[in-house]
Amino acid sequence: ILYYSIGSFAVSFAIAGICLLSSCIFNKSKISLGIGMGISMFFLVVSIIGIFGTSVMPQMIRIDAMSIFNYLTIVRLFDVNSVLTNNMSDFWIKLSGLFAIGIVTTVAGCIYFEKKDLPL
């Protein structure tokens, strides 16, 4: 359960970093919400669509061409199968990618916000 919680936190941290970066770049709240949450919703929808191309789906429902969508989302970096098969080296490598995305976008957002001229 601990590994699942760490993975869920890493995905949330990466998405929060992307949302923070978009809100620091754009002045208008509707644009920053549209970009930040648009990217987050894109990742969510693409990961749901990608499930239909995996072996989890029964053969009758599965569409093999849909598996390409699994490579378009950062949610793929949270590898549940590595936890189930006790392959922790792959789990931590992919999780470090999620933490790197979160850290880089958060730091970039903070740097961009400090240099920003606020329209007051």
Describe this structure in words.
The protein is built from four helices and no strands. The mean pLDDT is 91. It has helices at 2-25, 29-51, 80-84, 88-114. 17% of the residues are buried. The chain has 120 residues and is mostly helical. 66% of the residues lie in helices and 0% in strands. The longest helix is centred in the C-terminal third of the chain and has 27 residues, at 88-114.
Largest sheet: none
Q: What's the mean pLDDT score? A: 91
Structural class: mainly alpha
Cα gyration radius (Å): 17 Å
**Which percent range fits the helix content?**
55-70%
The DSSP helix count reads 4
Shape: flat
Q: Please report which band the strand proportion falls in: under 5%, 5-15%, 15-25%, 25-35%, 35-45% or over 45%.
A: under 5%
Order of helices and strands: HHHH
Number of strands: 0
Termini distance? 47 Å
Unreliable spans: none
